[in-house]
Amino acid sequence: MEHLRIPLWQEGSVIEKFPTLNKNEKTEVTIIGAGLTGLTAAYLLATNGVNVVVVDRDRIGNGTSGHTTAKITAQHGMVYNEFISHFGMEQASMYFLSQMDAMDKIEEIIQKHEIKCQFEKQDAYLFTNNEQNQRKLEAEFESYRKLNIDGEGLLEIPVNFPIKYALKMRNQAQFHPMQYMKALVDVIIEHGGKIYENTSVYDIDSNDHRVVRAVNQQTIVCDQVIIATHFPFFEGEAFYSARMYPSRSYVTGFTSNSKYPGGMYLSVDQPARSLRTVQHNNQEIWLLGGENHKTGQYNENNTPYDNLKELAQTKFDVKERMYEWSAQDYTTLDKLPYIGRLNKNREEIFVATGYRKWGMTNSMVAANVITDMILQKDNPYIDLYRPTRFHADPDLKKFITMNTNVAKEYIMGKIGTKNDEIDQLKQNSAMKMKHHGQTIGLFKDSQNKIHAVDTTCTHLGCEVNWNDTEKSWDCPCHGSRFQYDGAVIEGPAIEPLNKIDFSN
Ligand SMILES: Cc1cc2nc3c(=O)[nH]c(=O)nc-3n(C[C@H](O)[C@H](O)[C@H](O)COP(=O)(O)OP(=O)(O)OC[C@H]3O[C@@H](n4cnc5c(N)ncnc54)[C@H](O)[C@@H]3O)c2cc1C
Protein backbone atom coordinates (compact mmCIF):
# COMPACT_ATOMS: atom_id res chain seq x y z
CA MET A 1 0.00 0.00 0.00
CA GLU A 2 1.17 3.55 -0.77
CA HIS A 3 1.79 5.26 2.57
CA LEU A 4 -0.12 8.46 3.38
CA ARG A 5 1.44 11.89 3.91
CA ILE A 6 -1.14 12.77 6.58
CA PRO A 7 -1.17 12.28 10.32
CA LEU A 8 -2.91 9.08 11.33
CA TRP A 9 -5.08 11.15 13.70
CA GLN A 10 -6.71 12.95 10.80
CA GLU A 11 -7.52 9.90 8.69
CA GLY A 12 -11.29 9.53 8.79
CA SER A 13 -11.41 12.44 11.24
CA VAL A 14 -15.00 13.05 12.28
CA ILE A 15 -15.06 16.61 13.59
CA GLU A 16 -17.96 18.43 11.98
CA LYS A 17 -17.28 21.41 9.70
CA PHE A 18 -18.01 24.93 10.94
CA PRO A 19 -18.78 28.01 8.82
CA THR A 20 -16.51 30.95 8.00
CA LEU A 21 -17.26 34.08 10.04
CA ASN A 22 -19.52 36.05 7.71
CA LYS A 23 -21.11 38.55 10.11
CA ASN A 24 -19.87 40.69 12.99
CA GLU A 25 -20.00 38.93 16.36
CA LYS A 26 -20.17 40.03 19.98
CA THR A 27 -19.13 37.80 22.85
CA GLU A 28 -17.42 37.76 26.24
CA VAL A 29 -14.24 35.92 25.23
CA THR A 30 -12.82 35.46 21.73
CA ILE A 31 -10.43 32.55 21.35
CA ILE A 32 -8.20 32.67 18.29
CA GLY A 33 -6.94 29.20 17.34
CA ALA A 34 -8.78 25.88 17.58
CA GLY A 35 -5.99 23.54 18.61
CA LEU A 36 -5.76 21.89 22.02
CA THR A 37 -5.04 25.21 23.74
CA GLY A 38 -7.94 27.13 22.21
CA LEU A 39 -10.46 24.31 22.50
CA THR A 40 -9.52 23.46 26.10
CA ALA A 41 -9.84 27.13 27.09
CA ALA A 42 -13.18 27.33 25.26
CA TYR A 43 -14.34 24.15 27.02
CA LEU A 44 -13.39 25.45 30.49
CA LEU A 45 -14.91 28.88 29.92
CA ALA A 46 -18.12 27.63 28.27
CA THR A 47 -18.71 25.07 31.03
CA ASN A 48 -18.26 27.91 33.54
CA GLY A 49 -21.04 29.90 31.89
CA VAL A 50 -18.84 32.26 29.83
CA ASN A 51 -19.86 33.18 26.27
CA VAL A 52 -17.13 32.17 23.81
CA VAL A 53 -16.42 32.50 20.11
CA VAL A 54 -13.58 30.37 18.69
CA VAL A 55 -12.06 31.22 15.30
CA ASP A 56 -9.47 29.32 13.31
CA ARG A 57 -7.85 30.16 10.01
CA ASP A 58 -7.93 26.52 9.00
CA ARG A 59 -9.95 23.53 10.21
CA ILE A 60 -10.16 22.46 13.86
CA GLY A 61 -7.10 20.50 14.93
CA ASN A 62 -5.28 20.98 11.65
CA GLY A 63 -2.43 22.82 13.38
CA THR A 64 0.20 21.13 15.55
CA SER A 65 -2.42 19.45 17.74
CA GLY A 66 -3.43 17.27 14.80
CA HIS A 67 0.22 16.49 13.96
CA THR A 68 1.48 15.55 17.40
CA THR A 69 2.45 12.20 18.92
CA ALA A 70 0.09 12.86 21.85
CA LYS A 71 2.07 11.52 24.81
CA ILE A 72 0.55 13.03 27.93
CA THR A 73 3.43 13.25 30.32
CA ALA A 74 5.38 15.39 32.77
CA GLN A 75 8.59 13.78 31.50
CA HIS A 76 9.65 16.60 29.22
CA GLY A 77 13.21 15.56 28.37
CA MET A 78 15.96 16.17 30.94
CA VAL A 79 14.47 19.35 32.40
CA TYR A 80 14.18 18.85 36.14
CA ASN A 81 17.88 18.98 36.97
CA GLU A 82 18.21 22.07 34.77
CA PHE A 83 15.15 23.75 36.30
CA ILE A 84 16.42 23.09 39.83
CA SER A 85 19.75 24.74 39.01
CA HIS A 86 18.23 27.67 37.09
CA PHE A 87 15.10 28.44 39.11
CA GLY A 88 15.45 26.49 42.38
CA MET A 89 13.62 23.55 43.94
CA GLU A 90 10.34 25.33 44.49
CA GLN A 91 9.86 26.43 40.88
CA ALA A 92 11.03 23.08 39.49
CA SER A 93 8.54 21.34 41.76
CA MET A 94 5.76 23.73 40.66
CA TYR A 95 6.50 22.87 37.04
CA PHE A 96 6.18 19.15 37.74
CA LEU A 97 3.00 19.58 39.79
CA SER A 98 1.37 21.80 37.16
CA GLN A 99 1.98 19.13 34.52
CA MET A 100 0.67 16.30 36.71
CA ASP A 101 -2.41 18.39 37.61
CA ALA A 102 -2.97 18.94 33.89
CA MET A 103 -2.77 15.21 33.21
CA ASP A 104 -5.33 14.57 35.98
CA LYS A 105 -7.65 17.23 34.54
CA ILE A 106 -7.47 15.66 31.07
CA GLU A 107 -8.39 12.31 32.62
CA GLU A 108 -11.24 13.92 34.60
CA ILE A 109 -12.72 15.46 31.43
CA ILE A 110 -12.42 12.14 29.60
CA GLN A 111 -14.19 10.31 32.42
CA LYS A 112 -16.86 12.96 32.92
CA HIS A 113 -17.92 12.97 29.26
CA GLU A 114 -17.06 9.30 28.64
CA ILE A 115 -14.82 10.33 25.76
CA LYS A 116 -13.61 7.46 23.62
CA CYS A 117 -10.13 8.68 22.75
CA GLN A 118 -7.94 5.68 23.62
CA PHE A 119 -6.71 7.36 26.79
CA GLU A 120 -4.46 4.89 28.56
CA LYS A 121 -1.81 4.98 31.25
CA GLN A 122 1.73 4.20 30.08
CA ASP A 123 5.16 4.55 31.63
CA ALA A 124 7.40 7.15 29.97
CA TYR A 125 11.10 6.46 29.35
CA LEU A 126 14.08 8.67 28.53
CA PHE A 127 17.09 6.74 27.29
CA THR A 128 20.67 7.23 26.12
CA ASN A 129 23.36 5.20 24.48
CA ASN A 130 26.28 7.44 25.36
CA GLU A 131 28.24 7.94 28.56
CA GLN A 132 28.00 11.71 28.74
CA ASN A 133 24.20 11.61 28.56
CA GLN A 134 24.17 8.65 30.96
CA ARG A 135 25.74 10.91 33.60
CA LYS A 136 23.15 13.59 32.82
CA LEU A 137 20.28 11.11 33.05
CA GLU A 138 21.62 9.82 36.38
CA ALA A 139 21.66 13.42 37.63
CA GLU A 140 18.10 13.79 36.33
CA PHE A 141 17.10 10.72 38.34
CA GLU A 142 18.65 12.35 41.42
CA SER A 143 16.39 15.36 40.73
CA TYR A 144 13.38 13.00 40.50
CA ARG A 145 14.23 11.83 44.03
CA LYS A 146 14.47 15.41 45.31
CA LEU A 147 11.13 16.31 43.71
CA ASN A 148 9.40 13.06 44.75
CA ILE A 149 8.82 12.04 41.15
CA ASP A 150 7.88 8.39 40.80
CA GLY A 151 10.79 7.16 38.66
CA GLU A 152 13.40 4.47 38.25
CA GLY A 153 16.87 4.27 36.70
CA LEU A 154 17.26 1.26 34.33
CA LEU A 155 19.98 -0.54 32.42
CA GLU A 156 17.50 -2.17 30.03
CA ILE A 157 14.26 -1.16 28.31
CA PRO A 158 11.70 -3.44 26.65
CA VAL A 159 12.09 -2.04 23.09
CA ASN A 160 14.92 -2.65 20.66
CA PHE A 161 16.90 0.58 21.09
CA PRO A 162 20.53 0.06 22.20
CA ILE A 163 20.98 1.81 25.55
CA LYS A 164 23.46 2.48 28.31
CA TYR A 165 20.91 3.91 30.71
CA ALA A 166 17.21 4.84 30.89
CA LEU A 167 14.99 6.78 33.25
CA LYS A 168 11.38 5.76 33.72
CA MET A 169 8.55 8.05 34.92
CA ARG A 170 5.65 5.85 35.97
CA ASN A 171 1.95 6.31 35.32
CA GLN A 172 1.96 8.77 32.44
CA ALA A 173 -0.56 8.53 29.58
CA GLN A 174 -1.35 8.76 25.87
CA PHE A 175 -4.47 9.35 23.78
CA HIS A 176 -5.90 10.10 20.34
CA PRO A 177 -5.90 13.91 20.12
CA MET A 178 -8.53 14.32 17.37
CA GLN A 179 -11.05 12.06 19.14
CA TYR A 180 -10.49 14.09 22.32
CA MET A 181 -10.81 17.44 20.50
CA LYS A 182 -14.03 16.29 18.82
CA ALA A 183 -15.55 15.68 22.25
CA LEU A 184 -14.42 19.12 23.48
CA VAL A 185 -16.06 20.69 20.42
CA ASP A 186 -19.36 18.91 21.16
CA VAL A 187 -19.39 20.21 24.77
CA ILE A 188 -18.45 23.76 23.69
CA ILE A 189 -21.38 23.81 21.25
CA GLU A 190 -23.77 22.29 23.84
CA HIS A 191 -22.86 25.16 26.17
CA GLY A 192 -23.65 27.83 23.58
CA GLY A 193 -20.10 28.41 22.27
CA LYS A 194 -19.64 29.33 18.62
CA ILE A 195 -16.89 28.11 16.33
CA TYR A 196 -15.80 29.54 12.97
CA GLU A 197 -13.31 27.86 10.68
CA ASN A 198 -11.39 29.20 7.65
CA THR A 199 -11.36 32.59 9.36
CA SER A 200 -7.94 34.17 9.67
CA VAL A 201 -7.55 36.90 12.27
CA TYR A 202 -5.01 39.58 11.34
CA ASP A 203 -5.35 42.17 14.08
CA ILE A 204 -6.54 43.04 17.53
CA ASP A 205 -7.45 46.72 17.41
CA SER A 206 -4.67 48.90 18.78
CA ASN A 207 -6.96 51.55 20.22
CA ASP A 208 -9.72 49.33 21.48
CA HIS A 209 -8.16 45.95 22.30
CA ARG A 210 -11.55 44.35 22.49
CA VAL A 211 -12.07 44.31 18.73
CA VAL A 212 -10.75 41.29 16.85
CA ARG A 213 -10.42 41.73 13.11
CA ALA A 214 -10.66 38.88 10.62
CA VAL A 215 -9.17 38.95 7.14
CA ASN A 216 -12.64 38.93 5.54
CA GLN A 217 -13.39 42.30 7.23
CA GLN A 218 -15.69 40.88 9.91
CA THR A 219 -15.07 41.87 13.53
CA ILE A 220 -15.69 40.29 16.92
CA VAL A 221 -16.31 42.69 19.78
CA CYS A 222 -15.54 41.09 23.13
CA ASP A 223 -14.32 41.66 26.69
CA GLN A 224 -11.26 39.44 26.49
CA VAL A 225 -9.15 37.72 23.84
CA ILE A 226 -7.09 34.54 24.07
CA ILE A 227 -4.38 34.15 21.43
CA ALA A 228 -4.05 30.38 21.05
CA THR A 229 -2.50 30.48 17.58
CA HIS A 230 0.62 28.44 18.47
CA PHE A 231 2.94 31.37 17.63
CA PRO A 232 1.18 34.58 18.72
CA PHE A 233 0.31 36.26 15.41
CA PHE A 234 -0.22 39.48 17.41
CA GLU A 235 2.69 40.32 19.68
CA GLY A 236 1.58 43.62 21.21
CA GLU A 237 5.19 44.88 21.52
CA ALA A 238 6.08 41.96 23.78
CA PHE A 239 8.80 40.64 21.37
CA TYR A 240 7.75 37.00 21.26
CA SER A 241 9.57 36.80 17.90
CA ALA A 242 12.86 37.44 19.68
CA ARG A 243 12.11 35.11 22.57
CA MET A 244 11.21 31.82 20.85
CA TYR A 245 12.53 29.63 18.07
CA PRO A 246 10.72 26.92 16.03
CA SER A 247 11.95 23.39 15.45
CA ARG A 248 10.46 20.61 13.31
CA SER A 249 10.22 16.87 13.89
CA TYR A 250 9.13 14.03 11.65
CA VAL A 251 6.96 10.99 12.37
CA THR A 252 6.53 7.71 10.54
CA GLY A 253 3.73 5.21 11.28
CA PHE A 254 4.00 1.50 10.46
CA THR A 255 2.79 -1.94 11.42
CA SER A 256 5.31 -4.47 12.70
CA ASN A 257 5.60 -8.24 12.87
CA SER A 258 6.67 -7.82 16.50
CA LYS A 259 4.36 -7.23 19.45
CA TYR A 260 4.82 -3.85 21.16
CA PRO A 261 5.84 -4.23 24.80
CA GLY A 262 4.16 -1.01 26.01
CA GLY A 263 5.65 2.32 27.11
CA MET A 264 6.40 5.72 25.53
CA TYR A 265 10.06 6.33 24.67
CA LEU A 266 12.29 9.30 23.95
CA SER A 267 16.06 9.30 23.46
CA VAL A 268 18.06 12.18 24.84
CA ASP A 269 20.83 11.64 22.27
CA GLN A 270 21.01 13.28 18.84
CA PRO A 271 19.27 12.59 16.57
CA ALA A 272 16.39 12.28 19.05
CA ARG A 273 14.02 9.31 18.71
CA SER A 274 10.48 8.98 19.99
CA LEU A 275 8.25 5.89 20.03
CA ARG A 276 4.70 4.92 21.04
CA THR A 277 1.92 2.87 19.46
CA VAL A 278 -1.78 3.44 18.81
CA GLN A 279 -4.65 1.17 17.77
CA HIS A 280 -6.03 2.36 14.43
CA ASN A 281 -8.42 0.50 12.10
CA ASN A 282 -7.89 -2.66 14.17
CA GLN A 283 -4.14 -2.55 13.74
CA GLU A 284 -1.34 -1.66 16.12
CA ILE A 285 0.51 1.25 14.51
CA TRP A 286 3.98 2.13 15.75
CA LEU A 287 4.76 5.85 15.69
CA LEU A 288 8.48 6.51 15.40
CA GLY A 289 9.54 10.17 15.48
CA GLY A 290 12.68 12.26 15.44
CA GLU A 291 15.08 14.02 13.02
CA ASN A 292 14.54 17.38 14.76
CA HIS A 293 16.06 20.52 13.30
CA LYS A 294 15.43 24.23 13.44
CA THR A 295 12.68 25.17 11.00
CA GLY A 296 14.03 26.65 7.77
CA GLN A 297 17.57 25.36 8.29
CA TYR A 298 18.02 22.42 5.95
CA ASN A 299 20.97 20.38 4.99
CA GLU A 300 20.58 19.50 1.30
CA ASN A 301 21.23 15.83 2.01
CA ASN A 302 18.65 15.77 4.77
CA THR A 303 16.31 12.80 4.28
CA PRO A 304 14.36 12.62 7.55
CA TYR A 305 11.68 10.17 6.43
CA ASP A 306 14.24 7.83 4.84
CA ASN A 307 16.32 7.91 8.03
CA LEU A 308 13.28 7.00 10.14
CA LYS A 309 12.28 4.29 7.66
CA GLU A 310 15.73 2.74 7.77
CA LEU A 311 15.77 2.79 11.57
CA ALA A 312 12.30 1.22 11.73
CA GLN A 313 13.31 -1.51 9.31
CA THR A 314 16.52 -2.32 11.14
CA LYS A 315 15.07 -2.32 14.64
CA PHE A 316 11.34 -2.94 14.57
CA ASP A 317 10.60 -5.61 11.95
CA VAL A 318 8.35 -3.41 9.80
CA LYS A 319 5.40 -5.11 8.10
CA GLU A 320 3.94 -2.13 6.28
CA ARG A 321 4.82 1.56 6.20
CA MET A 322 1.62 3.54 6.41
CA TYR A 323 1.98 7.21 7.45
CA GLU A 324 4.40 10.11 7.43
CA TRP A 325 3.99 13.61 8.74
CA SER A 326 5.92 16.45 10.28
CA ALA A 327 5.23 19.47 12.46
CA GLN A 328 6.95 22.12 14.53
CA ASP A 329 6.80 23.65 17.97
CA TYR A 330 8.38 26.64 19.70
CA THR A 331 10.92 26.78 22.52
CA THR A 332 11.22 29.81 24.77
CA LEU A 333 14.44 31.27 26.18
CA ASP A 334 14.19 29.50 29.52
CA LYS A 335 12.23 26.43 28.26
CA LEU A 336 9.11 27.38 30.25
CA PRO A 337 6.01 28.21 28.18
CA TYR A 338 4.64 31.77 28.06
CA ILE A 339 1.13 31.63 29.53
CA GLY A 340 -0.85 34.63 30.76
CA ARG A 341 -1.33 38.29 29.88
CA LEU A 342 0.25 39.25 26.54
CA ASN A 343 2.04 42.17 28.19
CA LYS A 344 1.62 44.43 31.19
CA ASN A 345 -0.44 47.01 29.28
CA ARG A 346 -2.80 44.56 27.64
CA GLU A 347 -4.91 43.38 30.56
CA GLU A 348 -7.56 41.82 28.36
CA ILE A 349 -5.35 39.90 25.93
CA PHE A 350 -3.95 36.48 26.93
CA VAL A 351 -1.43 34.28 25.21
CA ALA A 352 -0.23 30.66 25.49
CA THR A 353 2.76 29.46 23.52
CA GLY A 354 6.25 27.91 23.65
CA TYR A 355 5.42 24.36 24.76
CA ARG A 356 8.72 22.84 23.44
CA LYS A 357 6.87 19.82 21.98
CA TRP A 358 5.08 19.15 25.26
CA GLY A 359 1.70 20.64 24.49
CA MET A 360 -0.68 17.91 25.69
CA THR A 361 -0.24 18.87 29.34
CA ASN A 362 0.91 22.45 28.68
CA SER A 363 -2.25 23.29 26.71
CA MET A 364 -4.25 22.20 29.75
CA VAL A 365 -2.00 24.20 32.12
CA ALA A 366 -2.50 27.22 29.84
CA ALA A 367 -6.26 26.82 29.53
CA ASN A 368 -6.58 26.52 33.30
CA VAL A 369 -4.32 29.44 34.17
CA ILE A 370 -6.00 31.76 31.65
CA THR A 371 -9.53 30.64 32.55
CA ASP A 372 -8.80 31.27 36.23
CA MET A 373 -7.40 34.72 35.42
CA ILE A 374 -10.52 35.55 33.40
CA LEU A 375 -12.80 34.22 36.14
CA GLN A 376 -10.66 36.10 38.71
CA LYS A 377 -9.85 32.92 40.61
CA ASP A 378 -6.51 32.10 42.25
CA ASN A 379 -4.23 29.77 40.38
CA PRO A 380 -0.91 28.60 41.84
CA TYR A 381 0.89 28.58 38.49
CA ILE A 382 0.29 32.14 37.24
CA ASP A 383 3.72 33.48 38.27
CA LEU A 384 5.71 30.50 37.00
CA TYR A 385 4.48 30.89 33.42
CA ARG A 386 4.00 34.70 33.32
CA PRO A 387 5.14 35.79 29.81
CA THR A 388 6.76 38.96 31.16
CA ARG A 389 9.10 37.09 33.56
CA PHE A 390 12.83 37.51 33.16
CA HIS A 391 15.21 34.87 34.46
CA ALA A 392 18.46 36.68 33.94
CA ASP A 393 21.24 34.11 33.54
CA PRO A 394 20.08 31.40 31.16
CA ASP A 395 17.80 33.84 29.36
CA LEU A 396 20.50 36.28 28.54
CA LYS A 397 22.98 33.78 27.16
CA LYS A 398 20.36 32.12 24.98
CA PHE A 399 18.92 35.44 23.92
CA ILE A 400 22.28 36.45 22.48
CA THR A 401 22.96 33.06 20.85
CA MET A 402 19.51 32.78 19.35
CA ASN A 403 19.40 36.28 18.04
CA THR A 404 22.83 35.83 16.53
CA ASN A 405 21.44 32.76 14.79
CA VAL A 406 18.33 34.60 13.57
CA ALA A 407 20.43 37.52 12.36
CA LYS A 408 22.77 35.11 10.56
CA GLU A 409 19.83 33.44 8.82
CA TYR A 410 18.47 36.85 7.86
CA ILE A 411 21.72 38.03 6.36
CA MET A 412 22.80 34.72 4.79
CA GLY A 413 19.41 34.35 3.18
CA LYS A 414 19.60 37.82 1.70
CA ILE A 415 23.02 37.49 0.14
CA GLY A 416 23.45 33.73 -0.34
CA THR A 417 21.97 33.20 -3.79
CA LYS A 418 22.57 30.40 -6.26
CA ASN A 419 22.71 31.08 -9.96
CA ASP A 420 21.92 27.60 -11.30
CA GLU A 421 20.23 27.44 -14.68
CA ILE A 422 16.45 27.16 -14.44
CA ASP A 423 16.49 24.61 -17.24
CA GLN A 424 18.46 22.25 -15.06
CA LEU A 425 15.96 22.52 -12.23
CA LYS A 426 14.24 19.16 -11.76
CA GLN A 427 10.43 18.88 -11.59
CA ASN A 428 8.99 19.36 -8.09
CA SER A 429 12.17 21.12 -7.00
CA ALA A 430 13.01 24.69 -6.14
CA MET A 431 15.93 27.09 -6.31
CA LYS A 432 16.71 30.72 -5.56
CA MET A 433 18.09 33.28 -7.96
CA LYS A 434 18.54 37.03 -8.38
CA HIS A 435 15.92 38.75 -10.53
CA HIS A 436 16.19 42.53 -11.05
CA GLY A 437 18.39 42.66 -7.95
CA GLN A 438 15.86 40.84 -5.81
CA THR A 439 16.17 37.28 -4.43
CA ILE A 440 13.31 35.16 -5.70
CA GLY A 441 12.31 31.53 -5.18
CA LEU A 442 11.41 29.36 -8.16
CA PHE A 443 9.51 26.09 -8.03
CA LYS A 444 9.13 23.88 -11.10
CA ASP A 445 5.95 21.77 -10.93
CA SER A 446 5.29 18.42 -12.62
CA GLN A 447 4.02 20.24 -15.76
CA ASN A 448 7.30 22.23 -15.89
CA LYS A 449 5.42 25.37 -14.88
CA ILE A 450 7.59 27.77 -12.86
CA HIS A 451 6.05 29.39 -9.76
CA ALA A 452 8.09 32.43 -8.66
CA VAL A 453 7.79 34.09 -5.27
CA ASP A 454 9.58 36.81 -3.37
CA THR A 455 11.46 34.88 -0.67
CA THR A 456 11.03 37.64 1.91
CA CYS A 457 8.84 36.30 4.72
CA THR A 458 5.74 38.46 5.08
CA HIS A 459 5.91 38.19 8.89
CA LEU A 460 9.06 40.14 9.77
CA GLY A 461 11.09 40.11 6.58
CA CYS A 462 13.49 37.18 7.09
CA GLU A 463 14.49 35.10 4.09
CA VAL A 464 12.56 31.83 3.65
CA ASN A 465 14.40 28.63 2.63
CA TRP A 466 13.18 25.69 0.57
CA ASN A 467 12.17 22.57 2.51
CA ASP A 468 12.47 19.85 -0.10
CA THR A 469 10.97 17.15 2.16
CA GLU A 470 7.68 19.01 2.63
CA LYS A 471 7.89 21.09 -0.61
CA SER A 472 7.42 24.35 1.27
CA TRP A 473 9.19 27.69 1.78
CA ASP A 474 10.03 27.85 5.52
CA CYS A 475 11.17 30.82 7.57
CA PRO A 476 14.14 30.07 9.86
CA CYS A 477 13.39 33.02 12.14
CA HIS A 478 9.86 32.46 13.43
CA GLY A 479 8.61 29.34 11.67
CA SER A 480 6.14 30.73 9.11
CA ARG A 481 5.71 28.21 6.29
CA PHE A 482 4.38 28.76 2.77
CA GLN A 483 3.35 26.51 -0.11
CA TYR A 484 5.47 26.47 -3.30
CA ASP A 485 3.16 29.18 -4.70
CA GLY A 486 3.43 31.37 -1.60
CA ALA A 487 0.14 30.49 0.21
CA VAL A 488 0.47 30.46 4.02
CA ILE A 489 0.62 26.98 5.61
CA GLU A 490 1.36 27.88 9.22
CA GLY A 491 3.20 30.20 11.58
CA PRO A 492 2.72 33.85 12.43
CA ALA A 493 2.58 35.14 8.82
CA ILE A 494 -0.90 36.18 7.70
CA GLU A 495 -0.09 37.30 4.14
CA PRO A 496 1.16 34.94 1.40
CA LEU A 497 4.61 35.37 -0.16
CA ASN A 498 4.42 37.89 -2.99
CA LYS A 499 4.14 36.22 -6.36
CA ILE A 500 6.66 37.47 -8.93
CA ASP A 501 5.82 38.01 -12.55
CA PHE A 502 8.73 36.13 -14.03
CA SER A 503 7.95 36.84 -17.66
CA ASN A 504 10.11 39.98 -17.93
C1 LIG B 1 6.20 16.30 15.84
C2 LIG B 1 5.63 16.76 17.16
C3 LIG B 1 5.30 15.82 18.13
C4 LIG B 1 4.77 16.23 19.34
N1 LIG B 1 4.47 15.29 20.28
C5 LIG B 1 4.01 15.68 21.48
C6 LIG B 1 3.75 14.72 22.49
O1 LIG B 1 3.93 13.51 22.31
N2 LIG B 1 3.30 15.17 23.69
C7 LIG B 1 3.10 16.49 23.93
O2 LIG B 1 2.73 16.84 25.04
N3 LIG B 1 3.30 17.42 22.97
C8 LIG B 1 3.75 17.05 21.76
N4 LIG B 1 3.98 17.98 20.80
C9 LIG B 1 3.62 19.39 21.04
C10 LIG B 1 2.13 19.66 20.85
O3 LIG B 1 1.63 18.94 19.74
C11 LIG B 1 1.89 21.16 20.64
O4 LIG B 1 2.58 21.88 21.63
C12 LIG B 1 0.42 21.50 20.77
O5 LIG B 1 -0.34 20.70 19.89
C13 LIG B 1 0.18 22.98 20.47
O6 LIG B 1 -1.20 23.20 20.56
P1 LIG B 1 -1.81 24.63 20.27
O7 LIG B 1 -3.27 24.53 20.42
O8 LIG B 1 -1.10 25.64 21.12
O9 LIG B 1 -1.40 24.96 18.78
P2 LIG B 1 -2.04 24.39 17.41
O10 LIG B 1 -2.55 23.02 17.57
O11 LIG B 1 -1.02 24.63 16.35
O12 LIG B 1 -3.29 25.34 17.18
C14 LIG B 1 -3.16 26.67 16.77
C15 LIG B 1 -4.32 26.99 15.84
O13 LIG B 1 -4.31 28.39 15.57
C16 LIG B 1 -4.72 28.60 14.22
N5 LIG B 1 -4.21 29.92 13.80
C17 LIG B 1 -2.92 30.30 13.63
N6 LIG B 1 -2.85 31.59 13.26
C18 LIG B 1 -4.14 32.03 13.19
C19 LIG B 1 -4.73 33.30 12.86
N7 LIG B 1 -3.99 34.36 12.53
N8 LIG B 1 -6.10 33.40 12.89
C20 LIG B 1 -6.87 32.32 13.23
N9 LIG B 1 -6.35 31.11 13.56
C21 LIG B 1 -5.01 30.98 13.55
C22 LIG B 1 -4.09 27.43 13.46
O14 LIG B 1 -4.78 27.19 12.26
C23 LIG B 1 -4.20 26.29 14.48
O15 LIG B 1 -5.37 25.50 14.26
C24 LIG B 1 4.54 17.61 19.59
C25 LIG B 1 4.89 18.56 18.63
C26 LIG B 1 5.44 18.15 17.43
C27 LIG B 1 5.83 19.19 16.44
TrEMBL record:
Kindly indicate whether the keyword Ribosomal protein belongs to this entry. no
In its UniProt record, a GO molecular function of this protein is: monooxygenase activity
- A Pfam family: DAO
SUPFAM superfamilies xref list: ISP domain, Nucleotide-binding domain
- Which keywords does UniProt give here? 2Fe-2S, Disulfide bond, Iron, Iron-sulfur, Metal-binding
Question: Does this UniProt record's set of keywords contain Disulfide bond?
Answer: yes
**UniProt GO cellular component terms:** cytoplasm; membrane
Cited PROSITE patterns:
RIESKE (PS51296)
* Superkingdom, taxonomy of origin: Bacteria
Q: Where is the Rieske domain?
A: 417-504
Name it.
Glycine/D-amino acid oxidase
This chain's source organism reads Gracilibacillus ureilyticus
